[in-house]
Amino acid sequence: MLKVPIAQAAAMLGISKEAIYNRIRRGSLKAIEKNGQRFVLIDEGEDDTAKTQTNKNKTFSNTKRDDFIKYLLAQIDELKALNLSLQADKDKLFREKENMLIESKKEISAIHKEKDERLMAFLQAMQNPLLNKNSNHDSHKNEVIDAEIDQDTSKWQSLDEAINSQISNKKEKKKISKKIIKYIDKSKFVKFKNGVIYVKKDKNLKQIIGEI
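Now predict its structure.
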């Protein structure tokens, strides 16, 4: 028989001090007082049983804790897998959206291109008769002037020669030169051939500009 204090008895039996007092009141534990201190009488076999039960409780508690940890880890793995799946779906949807936008842009561009081509074809069809007529006339006129320059250079002179011989002011030279250049092949008095701008000799530059 062991004689131990209340606190030690509680530790040995794996219960609280309040439980010790309750057992003493119920008579399931014997207690004595010595020098004002209460002691509990415990059989050695009861102590071993209590220790065994305490160990079982600890083992059961540890097993429950381990199972709960395993459950939490499994939940974490499932959440990770779900997150990866959602991310993959998100990437797929983003790529599909991008492809749809690209295809839509191509279709819109093709529609506008077709409309532009039809419009250009219509405008060309409307202008062709007039263009052909004018181009044939201009081509014939240019051929005549080219032949005239080749056959009789006395009737034509370069623009530089005409400007230098007729105008002394530099600003006026540039002004007249720019104005005449605009009418190359548009006026019968101005012609461009072999990299040289020609003007009629029998007309001074101011007369040419006045008749352009």
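The longest strand covers residues 37-42.
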